[in-house]
Predict the 3D structure of the following.
Amino acid sequence: MHPILSQLRRVIIYLLAWIPIAGLLAYLLTVSHEISDREAFVLSVPLCLLYAFLCLTSWYSCRGNPLEKYGLGRLIATHLTAALVASIIWAVAAESLTSTLSKMQSFPGLSHRFRPEVPLVFFTGLLLYLLWVTLYYVIIAVEASRDAEARVMKASVLARDAELRALKAQVNPHFLFNSLNSISALTSSDASKAREMCILLGDFLRRTLGLGEKAAIPLEEELSLIRAFLAVEKVRFGARIQMEENIDESALHVPVPPLLLQPLVENAVVHGIANLVEGGWIHLDVHAQNGTLTITVENSFDPDAPPRRKSGVGLVNVRQRLQARYGNQASFAVKTEGDRYRVALTLPTESEA
Amino acid sequence: MTRAAAAAKIRAVIVDDEELARQVLREFIAAHSEIEVIAECANGFEAVKIVTEQKPDLMFLDIQMPKLDGFEVLELIGNDTAVVFVTAYDSYAIKAFEVHAVDYLLKPFGADRFEASLKRAKERLAGKAPEPTPSATDLAVAARPPAQFLDRIAVRDGTRVFIIPVAKLEYAEAQDDYVALAAEGKKHLKQQTISSLESALDPHRFMRIHRSYIVNLERVAKVEPYGKDSHIAVLANGTQLPVSRAGYARLRAFLDR
């Protein structure tokens, strides 16, 4: 969206800004006393109107060549070429305007008298064009910083919101109820196993406590939370859960938002393994490379399983939190391939979180 | 099916995919000599098979299970078995009672709550003149929350269960108390009225074109006049279905849109 053309009010202000420029050009043309004030005025107004529109186009070359993306050499070359083209067009337009005016009675020999001023027009054009280029870059920078500010604001609101929800919703009450039911079963058949499960459950719950207040935890901590979660689920599902981890040592200390991975693993259990009569597997893959943390949670599932309500709430939550916190620096992708379900996410390792 | 009332044992089935959850029920039932657990099932398919083969009196049924969920099981087994739902999710309670479940046990539950449930089940079994209630299938449909239409239809053929995704359903035809579901060149019979099937299907995808026919709109290739003032719908695979006058008006309205 062109910052000036997008609103009529801005177009008017822009054209008003060209009035003093037209005045200045008219003044420069009269300095040599070859051209009268009236002639200078008649020339400068249409020329400046034309150039006002020519300079609008420089916005697109600024947009297409962001300062941070290309080297100084390329930027100078691009804009200098554009400025040269624009000012040549301008000078030619001035030429043809004067020769047209010369044919009229009231401007005798204007074309001839104007000829020495052509370099002046040319260099004025060059400078004006480059001036607008600079101005557009300022506008882009201001917009970018405003965007960034808005994103940070939105991110902090969303992040806090998500964190609170994480605490309330993601430690799924049904997980608790089902676990308590398993304990209830074990009390009579295997008291020591029941006690063990109480301890596992307590361990998991204690780890989730207070996570909502933390902006980030080391990945290691999140992993042990997942292991505590799976330890409980393994009592429920028995041999039906096969977990395999492949974790890059160097990733263990990377800070990540708390409860980012646990919902993914819970999703794999609830929507994957719980629907498989013979049980299934979960593969957790974590790699840190070149400032990017790549996490993949893959699990087997039954494509013909009965549809469950509320499916994917945890995933949506994770996606939103990533987006809110890292913007375009993070990615989140879900893919199903036959009976494999795969969630892959990437996030920057050096985060200000 | 008649039963000798007091003397015979109540034959019960436990359906839950978690061994420990089955264990709790087994233990509570063990205190009652009048109840015999004839089978335990770990998924919906097994449950349907057992009910078909052994006709149990009472079933403790989990809702979220592999293959078929508890409601789909209930839909397929009919009304002869008293069902007690056992689940950790309280959000299904209303639906469960609408499909005439005897009770709804929330995990974890204690012996008292189990006893109360069993008492209700016995009352239901004792008063078991074949109830003049609508079929479980129709009730299951009625209990569906609005704007949530079927994704798939479970059909039983003897002890086997077929799952038909609704996208593969070409048309449904009323046949007395049954509907014949045509999908992938086969027809499956299901005990259900065509009206209740109609209300369970997404009206943007399926249309009642005749007293006896519902058609998958995506499969309709063309509509042709037939005889004086009736029409037929021709499906992509060449099948011809009669279209009633009211059905034609509906179909026109849809096609003109």
